[in-house]
Design brief:
The complex is a heterodimer of chains A (113) and B (115).
Chain A (H helix, E strand, L loop, with lengths): L3 E4 L2 E5 L4 E7 L6 E7 L5 E8 L4 E4 L2 E6 L4 E6 L8 E9 L5 E4 L3 E6 L1
Chain B lengths: L4 E3 L2 E4 L5 E6 L6 E8 L3 E9 L2 E5 L6 E5 L5 E5 L8 E8 L10 E2 L3 E5 L1
Parallel strand pairs in B: 2-11
Antiparallel strand pairs in B: 1-3, 3-8, 4-5, 4-9, 5-6, 7-8, 9-10, 9-11
The chains are: A mainly beta (113), B mainly beta (115).
């Protein structure tokens, strides 16, 4: 059974700081790993998708890496801004007859001006 | 291109009632999944449909059911509502064909409050 853990649960940083959010998963047979952002009371916005054959993906100030052998993914946010404040969730996709995303509990990020 | 649309956005129901939530996926997407989000349990998988067939179901009681129509729109139904069913219900759609390496796109959710 896939389990996803995110550390830290909450993080508060000053504006401009570079930061790393961590995600670990127990079943390395994932098909892909996806990072999402969620603002309070809202749905999930997809940030980055890393396919199982890839090691990293970049979009603007965001960079996500995937190491299946160690069961880890990281989301790197460069030059953080107050607008980055949100909850960040990672999810691993399991396939076949067990097609579903398994989510971590998220990291609540606060970027202080 | 329109995103995933969920209706209604907010619902207040009384214990014992039933409720139906609707999800319209991105045009051309054939896989629709449903998730329940609560502060204590986080995001939990309910079920997934592809081409009108339920392919996978999470660990929820039989009061939770769903279906998918030929146009890929999906509904989920919760019968005999309990206070613990209060949650944000999220729907996600994926690329045509339901291939494994696909990106999931989520709607804004339906906030269900059971009183």
């Amino acid at each position: 059974k896939q389990e996803v853990t995110q550390i830290p649960a909450a993080l508060s940083v000053p504006e401009g700081e570079n930061l790393v959010l961590n995600c670990s998963f127990t079943d390395s047979a994932i098909y892909n790993l996806q990072w999402f952002r969620q603002d309070p009371g809202k749905g999930l916005t997809s940030l980055l998708l890393i396919q199982s054959s890839q090691r990293e993906q970049t979009s603007g100030r965001l960079n996500a890496s995937l190491d299946k052998s160690s069961g880890r993914s990281t989301l790197y946010i460069a030059a953080s801004q107050p607008g980055d404040s949100a909850t960040y969730l990672c999810a691993g996709l399991s396939g076949g007859s067990n097609y579903k995303l398994t989510f971590g509990k998220g990291t609540l990020l606060t970027v202080n001006p | 291109k329109a995103g995933v649309t969920q209706t209604p956005r907010y619902l207040i129901k009384t214990r014992g009632q039933q409720v139906t939530l609707s999800c319209s996926p991105i045009s051309g997407h054939r896989s629709v999944s449903w998730y329940q989000q609560t502060p204590g349990q986080g995001l939990q998988f309910l079920f997934e449909y592809f081409s009108e067939t339920q392919r996978n179901k999470g660990n929820f009681p039989g009061r939770f059911s769903g279906r998918q129509f030929s146009n890929s729109r999906s509904e989920m139904n919760v019968s005999t509502l309990e206070l613990g069913d209060s949650a944000l219900y999220l729907c996600a759609s994926s690329h045509p064909g339901g291939a494994m390496n696909t990106e999931a796109f989520f709607g804004q959710g339906t906030r269900l409050t059971v009183v």
